[in-house]
Design goal:
alpha/beta, Rossmann fold, 12 strands, 11 helices, five-stranded parallel β-sheet, 2 domains
Length: about 300
């Protein structure tokens, strides 16, 4: 019996026709026993050397993992990012890799808007004060009065830009891979964006080249009172530098859905001008269903393409 591992922290195998088709073809489906992000050693052990396909979460699929999993021929990521996969090692091991870039885009963009509005109107802190018996008359800021700088105009960044425009905000963006964008969005270089924007939202993949893209130097060049949003990848921000900028007041507020180490237990927990969510960007029911269906379909097609399954 051929073994397929589903390593996402949760997955609805009962209502997925592609998984049903695979089980009917005699495939053994093995789920993530920890129901959380797996470590390198945990995914290595779970794969063993008899797994032919992996429906992957965000666990580190390093060269060590991929070379050890000698039977692995197909990886289907349930999500947009591929930064957790060593793509060169996958190529060397003849492993077919796919992802679902469009499926989570609406969910992440809507969460991004929620984070922006929560910081601007201080929703979280006002809620906590009311719970403490106070009745604060909190004065926030209008999104319509802001210049929003979007770094990365891919599937998610474009949606965030459109939503911000609908609120009446001015939108500028930096994306070195684009020559033109929406007529109401000004494409600018990185330096201009961080100097002009009141709100900066990150929507780019993580790589060695983007590691700590937002660091102490970057933060110092932002406008006093800037708001920083990150629903992309945790490694894009130097979190210690962000704590210092938030504490000094140079950065007025931040909202983060992603962190370098998750679950997050760092010093940002002590900052009262931060909104934090637990990497839930894609966890809208409708988007999650679409992601799982697309990832399972990609897995099935990958098995057919590699000759491990007949049509």
């Amino acid at each position: 019996m051929s073994k397929i591992v589903i390593s996402t922290s949760s997955f609805d195998i009962q209502n997925n026709p592609y998984i049903e088709r695979l089980t009917k073809r005699g495939m053994q489906i093995v789920l993530n026993p920890y129901q959380r992000k797996l470590s390198e050693d945990e995914i290595l052990t779970l794969l063993g050397n008899d797994t032919i396909a992996l429906l992957a979460g965000i666990e580190p699929l390093t060269k060590k993992v991929l070379t050890a999993a000698r039977g692995l021929k197909v990886i289907a990521r349930c999500g947009a990012g591929l930064d957790s996969v060593d793509l060169e090692a996958a190529r060397q091991c003849d492993i077919l890799v796919s992802n679902t870039p469009e499926a989570p885009a609406q969910a992440v963009s809507e969460l991004t808007m929620g984070l922006i509005l929560s910081v601007l109107r201080q929703i979280g802190s006002t809620h906590r004060l009311i719970q403490d018996g106070q009745w604060p008359r909190t004065q926030g800021h209008l999104l319509a009065a802001q210049t929003v700088g979007i770094i990365g105009l891919g599937h998610i960044g474009r949606r965030v830009a459109t939503l911000c425009l609908a609120f009446g905000a001015r939108v500028i963006a930096h994306d070195p891979y684009l020559q033109q964008a929406h007529p109401d969005i000004s494409l600018v270089n990185f330096e201009q964006l961080i100097k002009e924007a009141n709100i900066i939202s990150l929507h780019i993949p993580y790589s060695q080249g983007t590691h700590h893209l937002v660091n102490a130097d970057t933060l110092s060049r932002m406008k006093p009172g800037t708001v920083l949003i990150n629903a992309a990848r945790g490694g894009l921000i130097d979190e210690n530098a962000l704590v210092e900028a938030l504490t000094s007041g140079h950065i007025a507020g931040a909202a983060l859905d992603v962190f370098e180490q998750e679950p997050y237990q760092g010093p940002l927990l002590n900052c009262n001008n931060v909104v934090m969510t637990s990497h839930i960007g894609s966890l809208a029911k409708e988007s999650r269903q679409r992601m799982e269906l697309e990832a399972a379909e990609n897995l099935l097609n990958g098995l057919i393409k590699t000759g491990l399954l007949n049509e």
